[in-house]
Amino acid sequence: MKNRIRQLRDIHNLTQDEIAKLVNVSRQTIISLEKGRYNPSIILAFKIAKVFNTTIENVFIYEEE
Length: 65
Description:
Elements: E1 2-3, H1 5-11, H2 16-23, H3 27-34, H4 42-51, H5 56-59, E2 60-61
Antiparallel strand pairs: 1-2
Helix pairs in contact: 2-3
């Protein structure tokens, strides 16, 4: 699943570490998400969207395989 975490972090001037702390995960988790190696749980997806004050659909892009 693709995502816009990196772009949204840049817009909001947040580091990977800051996002990780805000959603209570490790920085490594944020790195894995940004690189598309990890798909978040629905709860984590909601938390990340909330940090950016947007919808899950605006952060994560689902593509049919």
